[in-house]
Amino acid sequence: MDRIRIKGGRRLHGSIPISGAKNATLPLMIASLLTEETLVLDNVPRLADVGQLQRILGNHGVDVMVGGKRPGETPYDGQTLHISAARIVDTTAPYDLVSKMRASFWVIAPLVARMGQARVSMPGGCAIGTRPVDLLIMALARLGADIEIDGGYVIARAKNGLKGGEINFPKVTVGGTHTAIMAASLARGTTVIENAAREPEVKDVADCLNQMGAKISGAGTSRVIVEGVSRLSGARHRVLPDRIETGTYAMAVAMAGGDVLLENARPDLLQAGLDVLAEAGAEISATNAGIRVARNGAGIAPVEVVTAPFPGFPTDLQAQLMALMTCAKGTSHITETIFENRFMHVQELVRLGAHIQLNGECATIEGVGKLTGAPVMATDLRASVSLVIAALAAEGETMVNRVYHLDRGFERLEDKLSACGAAIERIAG
Ligand code: EPZ
């Protein structure tokens, strides 16, 4: 298994190109199942999760053609996928594929909406929480699907097609909102979704679906209205920049010190995160090319943060912020409200010399003068990158093990950081 070795203490200078968003790319690729025409996606990141989803779509009969290199393209430019679900030959998503990537469960929506049936494996457990899919199933049932749970599979049937209805989510769910919007796009009549997720990735998928001929209004707000249509066409759509990758590198610059331009990054996608970084002492400025992040001289100030659905502080940046706060001048509190088990990085940060106390969903981080490098273990995608951030400031060498977690969501991480002066390298396993 690959590992990543980091020698800490180097400041970061230069620019980092931000890739397309993983959490928009996955639902966009799944939305291709709604039409027999070709969906072309530009700015697609080269990630393990994207590759896994290609295999899952392939199992349904979907052809995915990766566009070749174009003149002037750099290795950092996203790839273009030409996705054609002209003929869906299998409406089952098997356990061995779905269990590797939870978001693949969302294929249930376009399959039942277009084909009138779907048999999709339940995703199973996850390191960061129980993560049930009861609200996704509730949404499909509200659109008239007959639901059966059998042998670890959810079987959804709607032989006369889905029918528009009212969906009121008791809690904000990103996956539930994607599922409801995709299914409602081909349902007969109007669907009203209350307490919908407002994440920018939800808006990006709705924008793409509207390009494909759907009639969706209010995406990005908590009330979404979908007028069902009988069929959707192909389209070409550019994936929006990854706000979590943006926030991650911004935290890395704040941790190591320096001055870096995050190219293609958009401040409107991450205002809550940028506000916290400014509070912590980083200089943040928006430019035409992206977002400039700098910390020179000033120490890191402690913060009080509670994770929340968009536009609140994203749970997917919680671990990275905790790493930054390990070296703050004072005591911080971070409360995780979205996932019940998203503190797996705490004991690994403590191995680097951090002082962190956990009390239920709240972590108290007492800043220390310095961290010291050590071997650490990655446990999930965002936890693993928090260890990289801590290691950038730690004295001596840190070895991060099981970096396959990182490859799921960060494209060319060690190249992007070493281009800015970090002493970081991948050790092939
Ligand atoms: C999406 O997961 C993201 N994944 C997650 O990013 C992100 O952390 C999460 O949204 C919250 O922002 C993708 O976009 C691929 P939810 P999702 O449904 O849709 C509970 C990363 O690191 N819930 O909004 O699965 C659930 O357990 C990943 O890139 C139910 O109870 O998250 C959680 O506590 C990690 N029943 C809360 O709602 C349901 O049916 C929010 O989950 C569905 C969810």
Describe the structure.
30% of the residues lie in helices and 26% in strands. The protein has 429 residues and is of the alpha/beta class. The protein has a 4-stranded mixed sheet with strand order 22-23-1-24. Strand 10, helix 6 and strand 11 form a beta-alpha-beta unit. Helix 1 (22-31) runs parallel beside helix 2. It is globular, with a radius of gyration of 22 Å. The model has no long low-confidence stretch (mean pLDDT 97). Ligand EPZ binds next to helix 1, helix 5, helix 6 and helix 12.
Q: What is the percentage of strand-forming residues?
A: 25-35%
- What integer is the average pLDDT? 97
Helix/strand/pairing category: alpha/beta
**Please, how many helices?**
14
- Across the major sheet, the strand order is 22-23-1-24
The shape is globular
Low-confidence stretches: none
Percent helix: 25-40%
Intertermini distance: 4 Å
What composes the largest sheet?
4 strands, mixed
The radius of gyration is 22 Å
Number of strands: 24
Bound molecules: ligand EPZ
